[in-house]
Amino acid sequence: MSTLLAVILTKNEERHIRECIQTVTWADGVLVSDSYSEDATAEIAQQLGATVVQHRFINFAEQRNIALADAKAREAEWVFFIDADERATPELGDEIRRVIQNRTEVGWWVPRYNYILGHKMVSGGWYPDHQLRLLKIDHARYDPTREVHETVILDGEAGYLDEHLIHYNYDTLASFRAKQNRYLVFEAKILYDQGIRPRPWTYISMPLREFWRRYIRLQGYRDGWVGLLLCGLMGWYTFRAYRQLGYLRRQGN
């Protein structure tokens, strides 16, 4: 039998951690990689039988690479990454167990339902929102240049699962804004490191392109007023990311 650990990255997730862990009891164990939470996250995880290791947060890609190393040190063959605000169904657990025993792929994409403002998203890039989360440890690592929206470098083939993750990511607009504010700093740095230079028209063209991509090409209009709002906000945060990029360029020059 292949050994599988469910891995959760955390920072002040006491609100979610209990329910998350309770949905991955089909794994051989749960590893919580915690960035020194200041709430009861670590204590709750330990009460539920999870192994908790703590590391200073550097960036998302680095945290996942550290978690892979920690899982390998515990002699796991596979990891299933799940975020604290996500839930895995029993059906997903059964499918994961089946494919790691019977298939040769070394990574698996998982479709994900996103609930935003209480609405189950059906389009706009928020569904099916496949995530590469099931990884054979010796064949996977995260690209260190992608500090946010991490990218897996996989030595081998990947497959697609049928069963879903459920993601309760944004209950309120305030939570949406807070997370996007954190992301845009990383996104601007990625653009900067890629050598991208914003032009005067970029501050208009790139936000409009992002809105068009999500609302028209990815059919964000199918989610009604929630889709319109979120696509508009993603355009706005694209503008802010390029404005931050411009600031970095001025500082660098």
Write the layout of secondary structure elements.
Elements: E1 4-10, H1 17-22, E2 29-34, H2 41-47, E3 51-54, H3 60-73, E4 78-81, E5 86-88, H4 90-102, E6 107-110, E7 112-116, E8 119-120, E9 131-136, E10 140-142, E11 152-154, E12 158-160, E13 165-170, H5 173-193, H6 202-217, H7 224-252
Parallel strand pairs: 1-2, 1-4, 2-3, 6-12, 7-13
Antiparallel strand pairs: 4-9, 5-13, 6-9, 7-8, 10-11
Structure description:
- This protein has 253 residues and is an alpha/beta fold.
- Helix content is 42%, strand content 22%.
- It folds into two domains: 4-169, Spore Coat Polysaccharide Biosynthesis Protein SpsA, Chain A, CATH 3.90.550.10; 172-252, no CATH class.
- It is globular.
- The chain has seven helices and 13 strands.
What's the short story on this structure?
The protein is an alpha/beta fold. It folds into two domains: 4-169, Spore Coat Polysaccharide Biosynthesis Protein SpsA, Chain A; 172-252, no CATH class. Helix content is 42%, strand content 22%.
Whole-number tally of structural domains: 2
- Extract low-pLDDT stretches: none
The CATH topology of the largest domain is Spore Coat Polysaccharide Biosynthesis Protein SpsA, Chain A
Distance between the termini: 56 Å
CATH architecture of the largest domain: Alpha-Beta Complex
CATH class of the largest domain: Alpha Beta
Strand/helix succession: EHEHEHEEHEEEEEEEEHHH
